[in-house]
Amino acid sequence: MEIVPSLLSADFARLTEEIRAVESAGAKRLHLDVMDGHFVPNITIGPFIVEAIRRVTNLHLETHLMITNPEKYIEPFINAGSDTIIVHIESGGSLKDDFAAIRKGSAKAGLVINPPTAFAEIEPYLKFVDHLLVMTVNPGFGGQKMIKAALEKVILAKPYSKKYGFPIEIDGGVNTETVNDAKEVGTDLIVAGSAVFSGGNSYRNYRLLTEILYRE
Ligand code: DX5
Ligand code: ZN
């Protein structure tokens, strides 16, 4: 189990410092939220910023693509230094082609499912994934309340995760109160944005979430 900081809520004017803080707190991966103002209402970062982040850290970079036509941008995000690329089942297009393009660039292929989408939709693809992300908020913004019903998908995905060896991650609404809900269902990777980066002490916030996670 591990907390994965989402830079969405970081102070982008002090990005290197924010990254150093979570690195020294023990983070092994960073979660990068890419939004196009079309697939979701918000706009965030593109390959240019991912490349800048790559230059200041060796952490594993997982890039969560909340965009339409993800196939157009897989290569630029891999060239920018992404280690894992995560595409939405809801983005349409051919997931098999997306996964092939991701692997061609030697990155890991991730699949993500929104809260309203049924688990059955992703089931046929689980034998092909390197990473599964279960959204516990509707994507677009940080700081939303966790939709706990979505955690059931972690339980449903567990046998596949064991069989095929991919980690299960959740994204959205994780804080000191809800992190145990993620733990209870057996989540491997737990994304946290606002709970890590708001309040000005990302080091302490990261440590606190990790402590709660490992508390008996
Ligand atoms: C939301 C993003 C998340 C976001 C989570 O659409 O995919 O990664 O950063 O933020 P919190 O942890 O604040 O819910
Ligand atoms: Zn995300």
Descriptive tags:
216 residues, alpha/beta, TIM Barrel, 8 strands, binds D-xylitol-5-phosphate, binds zinc ion
Can you tell me about this structure?
- The chain is α/β, with parallel strands linked by helices and 216 residues long.
- The chain has a single domain (2-213), classed as TIM Barrel (Alpha-Beta Barrel).
- The protein is built from eight helices and eight strands, in the order βαβαβαβαββαβαβαα.
- An eight-stranded parallel β-sheet has the order 1-8-7-6-5-4-3-2.
- α3 (74-79) links the parallel β3 and β4.
- It is globular.
- The model has no long low-confidence stretch (mean pLDDT 98).
- Bound molecules: D-xylitol-5-phosphate and zinc ion.
- Residues 6, 8-9, 31, 33, 64, 137, 139-144, 171-174, 191-195 line the site of D-xylitol-5-phosphate.
Net shape: globular
Sequence of strands across the biggest β-sheet: 1-8-7-6-5-4-3-2
Mean pLDDT: 98
Category by helix and strand content = alpha/beta
Percentage of residues in DSSP E strands: 15-25%
Q: What's the tally of helices?
A: 8
Rg for CA atoms:
16 Å
CATH domain topology: TIM Barrel
Number of domains: 1
Spell out the blueprint of helices and strands:
Elements: E1 2-5, H1 15-25, E2 29-35, H2 47-56, E3 60-66, H3 74-79, E4 84-88, H4 95-104, E5 108-113, E6 131-135, H5 152-164, E7 168-171, H6 179-184, E8 189-192, H7 194-197, H8 202-214
Parallel strand pairs: 1-8, 2-3, 3-4, 4-5, 5-6, 6-7, 7-8
Helix pairs in contact: 1-8
Bound molecules: D-xylitol-5-phosphate and zinc ion.
In short:
The chain contains eight helices and eight strands, in the order E-H-E-H-E-H-E-H-E-E-H-E-H-E-H-H. The protein is α/β, with parallel strands linked by helices and 216 residues long. Helix 3 (74-79) links the parallel strand 3 and strand 4 (84-88).
